[in-house]
Amino acid sequence: MGEKYWIGIDLGGTNVRMGLFNDLGVIVDEKRWLTEADKGPDYVIQKLIDAISSIKKDYLIQAIGIGLPGSLNSQEGIVLSCTNLPKWINIPLARIISDSLQTPCFIENDCNVAALAEATMGAGKGYDIVYYITVSTGVGGGLCINGEIISGATGNAGEIANIIVGESKIRHSYLNSGSLESMASGLAILRAAKEKGLNVKYAHEVFILASQGDKDALDVTESALDFLARGMAAIAHVVDPHIFILGGGVAVSVPGFTSNIREKYEKYVYEMMRGKVKIELAKLKEPGIIGAMHMAKKQQEAKAKKKKE
Amino acid sequence: MGEKYWIGIDLGGTNVRMGLFNDLGVIVDEKRWLTEADKGPDYVIQKLIDAISSIKKDYLIQAIGIGLPGSLNSQEGIVLSCTNLPKWINIPLARIISDSLQTPCFIENDCNVAALAEATMGAGKGYDIVYYITVSTGVGGGLCINGEIISGATGNAGEIANIIVGESKIRHSYLNSGSLESMASGLAILRAAKEKGLNVKYAHEVFILASQGDKDALDVTESALDFLARGMAAIAHVVDPHIFILGGGVAVSVPGFTSNIREKYEKYVYEMMRGKVKIELAKLKEPGIIGAMHMAKKQQEAKAKKKKE
Lengths: 309, 309
What we know:
Oligomer: homodimer
Structural class of chain A: alpha/beta
Mean pLDDT of chain A: 95
Low-confidence stretches of chain A: none
Number of domains of chain A: 2
């Protein structure tokens, strides 16, 4: 006892990952289990509390950070809604956990948390303005400036899926028509490939076919990358990051993804911006738990500082 | 003597405005003169130096801040290029002024400076994330977070003119096809109105015709506002500001501009973001000189603090 420890949790729709970190940010223990989201929030939260409790016996936990996919009020610690966690509507998750365990708990959107992890310990280390983009089934993002997550007024900074990047006749229930997610996500790539009659199961297979010279597959991937580049150009004109970090299944599994994107991106920004921004792949294997830990640490330290003043 | 004073300058293509401020930010003297940009940078800069010199005799000037339209390296104090100031290519303006007058000088893009002014003393006072947008002949923007200008990696944060908001067949020399400026600026409104055969000289006249029931004028203004709303939605998904502040000739001269924009904006953001962002008109008459002064003060104080450490 005596040494300070921190917990970072990545609460996903399928798996929960939990990391125990010492005060230097080194991971000393890790656990993972199935979320079993279908059993509802009470069940998922109780399992979280049990897992933290069993660690808390042996370590002096300073704070718990949880990253999860969805719309949050991170200041109040409330989960507003969550695509992959059904029935998570207006759940005061941070308060439930902190009350139950008598330990401060902070929550944040999982993309923001990943952005913080990459900005602090990954590809974005040393850069002032870091924009993290994940391209997997969907598209997400997160912004860090000087090592701080920018959540925004309503917690929606980084919700780049909904940026309009083109015209489309397809209507969506909650996304803009022609939005980045509907034009450039793994799901969008897969849908476009199937429309062209390609026999594929995963988005990265479309990129493999394209690299083998399949004209239809190439049309699909080039179009998706072009729309992604438009989205990145929009971000650049809004906040002009020093580095874009690309993560997510599609980005990291496709060879040459960043150089292909760069070529397209440069067309859509002012001449004087060309060749200047860094575009790198995400470096960390577990940005979720690392970022959640860093977020909790920052929040707790800010709270302590404020109390002192 | 003894009391501290600061100078803020708004260096435009047509006019130069200069304000002398005391340490409380109150303006104590103001001058304005024609830029005479056609006489070249040496001439314009010498007139600037002469004007500051004549004030410097009587006041203890701490620093000089200059806001100007164009692409800058604000950290190095270099004007890279300037649309309204011909021949201003790679001019180390801050160094020239500070060497000549033995007084620290800082430069910044005029939209960023206006954003800082509104964030500090105008409509954005008290809000963490402020996005300032000017709609006049062109479209520009500036971002302030916690009272600091975010210039970005290449000084292009806020250069929202180039964000793609729609499809267009018109090609531009330096802007994206379908960019915000080409779809929603005063010039774009005027061009579209003339294409429809409307007899107008200024963009705001198109709004007047629209309010009088002219169907063609209404088509033009509704389309421009819709594209502006798309641009604002893109900004919201990237950085989620607490407030949008709308300035510039078109925005401030058209009755009901903000409520019309809000209605369109809400369609393009996630449901949970609707009704939450503030959209207000700019409040300050001279954001250029006020913002330039605040910028210089902040830069000088940060420099002094760094030296101390």
